[in-house]
């Protein structure tokens, strides 16, 4: 009975925001459809102005669930995000169904949420409600490889640039999500890179250049910059350098991702080579940087390391004052285990078992010693610190 209640309560963490977002979609799309029919007789720029404002309002509600309801911490590194709106192409690595919302997270910081448009794979155009809307909002559906219609994409983007449509075009050049469980996709990507004489990437897929090149080429005079974005969900890289799958949208809404690390790089249009061959090399080099950044995106568990240092210092002080070899050995042992645990938590907040073992053991041992001796130093202090550490690990 209790287990069933826990399971149902946990599922509500996802179904509540999902129901609100899906339930409001028809309410949003019905008046929008009326506006779209009316705007056929009006200038295209006017349609996009109203549409962008309405989309910004709707997406603000969606962002509330992803950023406020989940309590996720967004950590941005690299360049400062410009305060003013810009016409940009947004290039990012792709690993989760939540990736599209990260673009919104950054766009709203420039008050450009309504200008976000996407380059999406062709199959998504049949998505109920949203499929047709994304196209009318300015998005582009593309097919892969030989079926890619370069002229259609160039025509649509050029026409929007011509009438001055604000542009925050989101592209995931990898073409599909990186998932460490899809070994064949990763192997094929790495084999292709090696065959073409490109650097083999470990944490991202080899980028496809066609859609990115067409978009930038078609709107070069309209664009202010290219935003090169690297997204890393905390907990997807283990201490031994192995990748784990990024959280899905349900997992994200269920608050299973504590932090999202975003490396933001603004590239001036003069830095982007127009020639296809050089553009391909340039794009791959940008993804080489992303590959390297994945090894650096960890949040150091400073509290855990401080706790480990306190244990080791306590053991040393016991040895120095009373000549207790056992205090020294215990201090060094539990201090080392705690430091190792803090190191693992720095890569994955859920990997807390070494830290829990050390703090739990010390809470029991030092608690019993405090009860027998009644001395605050060192037994009482260390028992209290260890108990607080146990609570932090279990609650956090």
Describe the structure.
By secondary structure, this protein is of the alpha/beta class. Helix content is 56%, strand content 11%. Strands 1-7-6-2-5-3-4 form a seven-stranded mixed sheet, sandwiched between helices. Strand 3, helix 4 (130-136) and strand 4 form a beta-alpha-beta unit. Helix 1 runs antiparallel to helix 2, helix 10 (302-322) packs antiparallel against helix 13 and helix 12 packs antiparallel against helix 13.
Number of domains: 2
Sheet with the most strands, sense and barrel status: 7 strands, mixed
Strand order of the largest sheet: 1-7-6-2-5-3-4
Task: Give the class-level CATH name of the largest domain.
Answer: Alpha Beta
What is the general shape? elongated
Give a count of the beta strands, DSSP E runs of length 2 or more: 7
Overall pLDDT level:
86
The CATH architecture of the largest domain would be 3-Layer(aba) Sandwich
Can you tell me the CATH topology of the largest domain?
Answer: Glycerol-3-phosphate (1)-acyltransferase
- Helix proportion: 55-70%
Q: Kindly, what is the distance between the CA atoms of the first and last residues, rounded to a whole number of angstroms? A: 26 Å
Q: How do the helices and strands follow one another from N- to C-terminus? A: HHEEHEHEHEHHEHEHHHHH
Strand content: 5-15%
- DSSP summary: helix tally: 13
């Amino acid at each position: 009975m209790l287990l069933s209640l826990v399971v149902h309560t946990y599922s509500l963490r996802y179904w509540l925001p999902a129901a609100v977002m899906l339930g409001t979609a028809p309410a949003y799309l019905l008046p929008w459809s009326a506006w779209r029919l009316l705007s056929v007789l009006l200038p295209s720029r006017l349609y996009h102005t109203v549409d962008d404002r309405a989309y910004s309002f709707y997406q603000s509600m969606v962002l509330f669930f992803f950023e406020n309801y989940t309590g996720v911490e967004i950590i941005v590194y690299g360049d400062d995000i410009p305060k003013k709106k810009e016409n940009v192409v947004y290039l990012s690595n792709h690993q989760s169904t939540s990736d599209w919302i990260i673009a919104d997270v950054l766009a709203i910081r420039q008050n450009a949420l309504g200008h976000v448009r996407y380059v999406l794979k062709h199959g998504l155009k049949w998505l109920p409600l949203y499929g047709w809307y994304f196209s009318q909002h300015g998005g582009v559906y593309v097919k892969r490889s030989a079926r890619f219609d370069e002229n259609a994409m160039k025509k649509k983007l050029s026409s929007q640039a011509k009438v001055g449509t604000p542009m925050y075009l989101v592209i995931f050049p990898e073409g599909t999500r990186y998932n460490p469980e899809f070994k064949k996709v990763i192997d094929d990507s790495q084999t292709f890179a090696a065959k073409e004489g490109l650097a083999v990437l470990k944490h991202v897929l080899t980028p496809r250049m066609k859609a990115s090149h067409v978009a930038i080429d078609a709107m070069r005079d309209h664009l202010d910059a290219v935003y090169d974005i690297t997204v890393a969900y905390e907990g997807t890289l283990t201490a031994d350098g192995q990748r784990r799958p990024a959280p899905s949208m349900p997992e994200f809404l269920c608050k299973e991702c504590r932090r999202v690390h975003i490396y933001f790089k603004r590239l001036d249009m003069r830095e982007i080579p127009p020639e296809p061959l050089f553009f391909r090399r340039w794009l791959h080099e940008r993804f080489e940087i992303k590959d390297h950044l994945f090894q650096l995106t960890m949040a150091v568990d400073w509290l855990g390391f401080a706790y480990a240092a306190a244990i080791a210092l306590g053991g040393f002080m016991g040895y120095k004052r009373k000549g207790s070899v056992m205090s020294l050995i215990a201090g060094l042992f539990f201090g080392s285990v705690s430091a190792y645990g803090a190191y693992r938590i720095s890569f994955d907040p859920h990997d807390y078992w070494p830290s829990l073992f050390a703090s739990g053991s010390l809470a029991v041992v030092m608690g019993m010693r405090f009860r027998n001796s009644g001395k605050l130093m060192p037994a009482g202090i260390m028992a209290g610190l260890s108990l607080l550490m146990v609570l932090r690990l279990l609650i956090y």
